[in-house]
């Protein structure tokens, strides 16, 4: 075990800042940041690039060049040790001649998991671990979920009145929260690999599910629609967008093949999900399938039926709830569809981890209790 220094957290914080820029952009790989320091001066920095390659260490070493010899490399996640589409980053650090590697968190991928650190130690490199580990683990909570649970990290986002209503009895919902809260919601979208809604939301609201913020609109998240009957309208924004960005549809295990061909011809990816009931969708299985397809973070935006299904399938890891300072009344559409809870013990429970004011609205952030 190497020796820590007072500067280690400072440089690791810089590496984490770099990694944060890749959230929602590096799947199926984790987002990693790397900073290389020599004689107190930063000589190289990098993050995992969009699409997962090149890796952060490769970027930082290219910037440092020959100066990397004898330097310290700060990496937010254990350097990989296996041959994939790129050579192992552990080998790249060894070849560059770095003297010390400081790692925030170990990689849960069984192809790496401790092997990258051991390879560095065997090469005579001093290795320090655990510097700002909680922050690094949270940064890649989606990647960790994919590797340990076999499915992406699921975040449900809701925007409602104080009494939990998301639309009037006539379906009017734009806009319950203010522009700053909506902009914050777009920022959260940008940090996820995909945004998921139900077909009823597509039919009633016709969303485009993009990130409408400057600098965040160049790589939109995958749009996912849960649509057991393939009712998504051909004139919807999502169908029209499928020719130039990814739009995926989760449907039942025995879909209408003619309709599948029609939608695939328009550019959509149709994903049949097997179930004991022909027209039902096994949601846990669907999330496992999406994990196998490389997704690590999914944001669920509605509607109320889809949110309820995720809640009671025990699939919600994070909950972000925007509340406007208004009351709609009991005839408004509830944020979560009725599910017939008879006992308090069976309710999904969450732990409040953050609360902040956004202009006139409030944003509450929860994790699964």
Key attributes of the depicted protein:
369 residues, alpha/beta, 9-stranded mixed β-sheet, 5-stranded mixed β-sheet, 12 helices, 16 strands
What does this structure look like?
This protein has 369 residues and is of the alpha/beta class. Helix content is 28%, strand content 25%. It has helices spanning 8-20, 56-64, 89-96, 115-122, 133-139, 141-148, 179-190, 199-205, 237-241, 257-265, 283-292, 304-312; strands spanning 33-38, 41-47, 72-77, 100-105, 126-129, 153-160, 165-167, 194-198, 222-226, 247-252, 269-273, 297-302, 318-323, 333-334, 350-358, 361-368. The strands form three sheets. Strands 11-10-9-8-12-6-13-16-15 form a nine-stranded mixed sheet, sandwiched between helices. It has a five-stranded mixed sheet with strand order 2-1-3-4-5, with helices on both faces. Strand 10, helix 10 and strand 11 (269-273) form a beta-alpha-beta unit. The mean pLDDT is 93.
């Amino acid at each position: 075990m190497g020796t820590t220094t007072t500067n280690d957290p400072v440089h690791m914080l810089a590496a984490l800042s770099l990694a944060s820029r890749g959230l929602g952009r590096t799947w199926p790989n984790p987002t990693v940041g790397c900073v290389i320091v020599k004689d107190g001066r930063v000589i190289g920095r990098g993050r995992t690039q969009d699409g997962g390659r090149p890796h952060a260490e490769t970027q930082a070493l290219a910037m440092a060049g020959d100066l990397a010899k004898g330097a310290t490399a700060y990496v937010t996640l254990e350097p990989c040790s296996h041959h994939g589409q790129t050579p192992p980053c552990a080998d790249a650090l060894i070849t560059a001649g770095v003297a010390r590697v400081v790692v925030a968190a170990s990689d849960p991928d069984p192809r790496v998991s401790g092997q990258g650190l051991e390879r560095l130690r065997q090469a005579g490199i001093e290795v320090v671990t655990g510097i700002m580990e909680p922050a690094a683990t949270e940064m890649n909570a989606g990647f960790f979920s994919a590797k340990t649970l076999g499915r992406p990290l699921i975040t449900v986002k809701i925007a409602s009145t104080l009494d939990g209503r998301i639309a009037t009895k006539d379906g009017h919902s734009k806009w319950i929260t203010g522009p700053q809260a909506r902009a914050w919601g777009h920022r959260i979208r940008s940090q996820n690999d995909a945004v998921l809604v139900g077909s009823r939301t597509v039919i009633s609201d016709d969303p485009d599910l993009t990130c409408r913020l400057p600098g965040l609109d160049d790589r939109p998240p995958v749009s996912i629609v849960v649509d057991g009957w393939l009712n998504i309208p051909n004139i919807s924004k999502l169908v029209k967008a499928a020719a130039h960005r990814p739009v995926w549809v989760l449907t039942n295990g025995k879909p209408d093949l003619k309709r599948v061909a029609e939608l695939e011809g328009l550019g959509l990816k149709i994903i049949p999900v097997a179930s004991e009931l022909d027209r039902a969708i096994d949601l846990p299985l669907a999330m496992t399938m999406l994990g196998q397809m490389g997704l690590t973070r999914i944001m669920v935006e509605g509607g109320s039926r889809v949110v309820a299904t995720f809640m009671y399938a025990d699939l919600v890891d994070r909950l972000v709830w925007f509340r406007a300072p208004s009351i709609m009344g009991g005839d408004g559409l509830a944020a979560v569809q009725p599910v017939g809870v008879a006992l308090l013990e069976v309710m999904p429970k969450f732990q409040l981890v953050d609360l902040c004011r956004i202009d006139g609205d409030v944003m509450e952030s929860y994790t699964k209790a």
